[in-house]
């Protein structure tokens, strides 16, 4: 298996997918866009060997954990979907930063 | 499948010459590099096979030249990869030198032993590289397929319409392709995993007085079997 970043990015994408199905309109569209972005990032993470000790990597894992913990195993509508979108989007930003940093190293 | 994934997950933007490209998540170089690594493995066992023949000198020269060509190809392909796998080209770079020297100095059974001793670890490294890459490609294909299905469900035409039939047929092709990819990769990994152990067993058998030099042919068959699976995968 590949490293934690790839697994957690794919895991969050799956959770965001569950939310996108159960929400509507802008919330659903935003979640689908984040899901596509997370899927692309997990593919990028799969093809790279990353330094798990790097600060950017650790921040990305924390961001992914925060989003995963908040969304949990929700498979229906949740009260604060705006916060879920914010956390998932932030996690995607951090994962992208970790991958960009690794590419420059 | 990767191409279809890029199309269905593309953002809502005007088409340009760079549409549907994403080099950061492109798995194709991984696949090409593993194909080249497997080719090196096949050519290496070809050298062993040549060593085991009676008129070995001409065959060894020919097999060594082919192996050198494959090593050069692997070195070029692996440079395109962004991580430590780029070292793969160096793993077996000593094969040619060893084969060339030993043929001149030793009788062929001793040459075979020496080549196999020096290559045992590299064979294991190469097999691990191929199997590890197959796992990555399998993970990626799961992600492609998951996103393709999600997007398909979001835009699937209504039941009992002609467009639904055409749409579902396209998705069925994607599902079939995904199953074929995963089955092929699993078969390649299973075949490649057996190669280092088979290599060691053949080397051990060379110590026995009664051993014949036909045994490298078994390795050739295993490596070629795996190589054929890769060729199927590319079709």
Protein model, in words:
The complex is a heterodimer of chains A (105) and B (235). Chain A is mostly helical and 105 residues long. Chain A has one domain (4-104). Chain A is built from four helices and no strands. Chain A starts with a helix and ends with a helix. The mean pLDDT of chain A is 88. Chain B is mostly helical and 235 residues long. Chain B has one domain (27-234). Helices cover 77% and strands 0% of the residues of chain B. Chain B has eight helices and no strands. Chain B is elongated. The two termini of chain B are 12 Å apart. Chain A binds chain B through residues 1-2, 6, 10, 13-14, 17, 20, 32-33, 35-36, 39-44, 46-49, 99, 103, and chain B through 9, 11, 22, 24-27, 29-30, 82-85, 135-136, 139-140, 143-144, 146-147, 150, 154.
Helix content of chain B: over 70%
Total helical segments of chain A: 4
Q: What share of residues of chain A is helical?
A: over 70%
N- and C-termini, Cα separation of chain A: 23 Å
The helix/strand series of chain A, from N terminus to C terminus, equals HHHH
| DSSP summary: helix tally of chain B | 8
Radius of gyration of chain A: 13 Å
Mean pLDDT of chain B: 74
Largest sheet of chain B: none
List keywords for this structure.
heterodimer; A: 105 residues; mainly alpha; elongated; B: 235 residues; 8 helices; 0% strand
